[in-house]
Amino acid sequence: MSERLVAAGRRFARLSTRAVVGRPWAWRLFRAPLRRYFDWLAPQWESIRGPEGLLPLAAALDRLDAPPRRVLDVGTGTGAALALVAERFPGAELVGVDLAPSMLAEARRVLPDDVLARARLEVADAAALPFAEGEFDLVTLQNAIPFPAELGRVVAPGGTVVVAFSRGAETPIWTPPETLKRLLAEAGFERFEEVAAGAGTALLARRA
Prior knowledge:
This protein has one domain (3-207): Rossmann fold. The protein has helices at residues 3-22, 27-41, 45-48, 55-61, 80-88, 101-110, 113-118, 148-154, 177-186; strands at 70-74, 93-98, 119-123, 136-142, 155-165, 189-197, 200-207. 42% of the residues lie in helices and 25% in strands.
């Protein structure tokens, strides 16, 4: 894999995130090239990411008020975050969605059989999730572009969204916590809590 292409992709991911978070209508411009980029990355993704990148998400899961019954992982990639949730909450139903079909194909290859037996993996657009209102007690995002209106729609009252970034502000797909809080508050979330672990950060927000 060309390091130059990977670096260029990271810069494009950061540019895309800034544009879409500030102007959600811009998603239609960035969706297809981002899908192609992550489809291209999928076969090498497991060798690029490190297990320490999950530390912020793990720390955030420790702060949940109660074990969730239904969990959605948005931008699930090869399923690392979904596997962590599965380990923490063995009684939960799991759904993982990603825009890139090749990422989900890789997830089906690398995830343990016991996780695959409990999890449903679907190609889906995070800006228009194919789920009912209030369907999930917990929604997680690991290094994914947030669409607060959709998160507010699919998280049940009293449920939680966790937005984690494996390397904090150095993560290519990153949103400043103050921006996240403002947008999530507008979507009906409250009781924000920031956590840090390893090199990364995460934000918890509870649905009113």
